[in-house]
Amino acid sequence: MKTKQLTDSLSVAEQIKLSDLKALAQAGFKTVINNRPDGEVPRQPRSVTLEKRAAELGLSYRFIPVTPGAMSTDDIADFKAALTDAPAPAIAFCRTGTRSTTLWAHAVVDVLPVDAIISTAAKAGYDLSTSKTKLERMADEMASSHRETLKYTVLVVGGGSAGIATASSLLKRRPNLDVAVIEPNWVHYYQPGWTMVGGGIFDAKSTERRMRDLIPRQAKWIKGAVAKFHPDTNSVELEDGSLVQYDMLVAAPGLRLDFQKIEGCEETLGKNGVTSNYRYDLAPYTWELVQGLKSGTAIFSQPPMPIKCAGAPQKAMYLSADHWLRENVLNKINIEFCTAGVVIFGIKEYVPSLMEYVKKYGANLNFGENLVKIDGPNKTAWFEKSDANGHKSLVERKFDMLHISPPQSAPDFVKRSPLANEAGWIDVDPETLRHTRYSNIYALGDACSAPNAKTMAAARKQAPIVATNVLAKLDGINKRAVYDGYGSCPLTVERGKIVLAEFGYGGKLIPSFPKWIIDGTKPSRLSWLLKERILPPLYWKGMLKGKEWLVKPHPNDRDEITDVVK
Predict the structure, then answer these.
(1) How far is CA 68 from the centre of its chain?
(2) 85, 191, 333, 454: which has the fewest C-beta neighbours closer than 10 Å?
(3) In the CATH hierarchy, which top-level class contains the domain 3-146?
């Protein structure tokens, strides 16, 4: 039996035999969808027989029989429900696989372009070109029906760390709250893990989950992208032209990676020795380059602030250098750290430990250098260097490996909106995270203007504070929770040790543990175990599920709610 893959979560096949089910289970399939009516041909396995054997093998089974040429809207709806609810990956079958492929095409026409659907089917060996007109008409009808104005009590923009954590925190406090989350992507990523992928510690696949498994079940998932904010009418406009209204808005759209601002960068990313741990598809290439480099020059760049996880550029450098040291090739590799900043790290208490590792690895620190151009084939990079007097010059550097941390900014629809400040970020009060001009709007995560470090740890603390304040506003209560600017940057200085930087507004140290357990200013094995073993499951099963570890806002004796961290 030959299976043909349509998507990461769905493959199709011709009629399967009872004996095929075991092979399908061993191949990793979780669900079998039978689209062939019983009795089409003699000796065809009956659905009840297949279902019984599937259950014995731990496979989910769905029977959605379709008579050739008589596919109904109910058939399409049932197939779409199976794709949404059943465990993935799934295998759908009929006589030849054509009916299953056609069902899939009609089930996803509201989320995929028709040309992409037809192209995907063709790659699997199924010609749906004669259905193009019908699919386009169906897509138009569905788009029109989606343009009706929807209304929710709380609307969350963004299905990243901050958005999902806030939605979960809201629903943990008030399970029947009317909440919707706007998010266009099917997949959610644990981005702090990409540093570890680039260092050969994590597998990239371990950092991803299906979005529908993470957005709270009580919340409505609006799978779309925001085009405009309309705060004066309490609504947002999606890219398909539909409007969604709200009583309260929580904006957590993240930020944008501006690789295109570096001339020649996009053309060479992922080849010619040019990589970046800031992208899921590139982090494995970082590890490939690190393993392959035995001599030459490795450059690690850092752009002007603000960026998310400001320690990420040097984390990549430390883990790479540690590998080269262990492989006894470090003395043959010239490491250049080129940063647009003027210090290695902005909180002075952590600098001495970091400088010990800079010396250990023989890395050269080049301050005031911002990457502006790359010639990948010729392995040359140019940096704009600013001196103490503001004079600028161009520095040319040859490389064998170049790790890029790209410039970063707010998404365009945020920059153009009434919510943005002069720098393009959503303008909020840094303590309450409420918008400075619109009292029913809160923002958190990478896109807000609060002067904290843009890290997942910051979002972890911001989410319950925003949830508390949103509910207080809905209830007309004049209380608030206060954010202290907490952020964390676990600096992976070597494989097995981390300098655990934790700090808040004004550079104040805010350690989560007593110094006798973890002294965050010193490299620690316990901090490494925290990042490698504890934080990933804490993220998936805790933060994104509304479980608020070390960050629960509680009422006190005053009229305010303060955030009790310890």
Answers:
(1) 41
(2) 85
(3) alpha beta
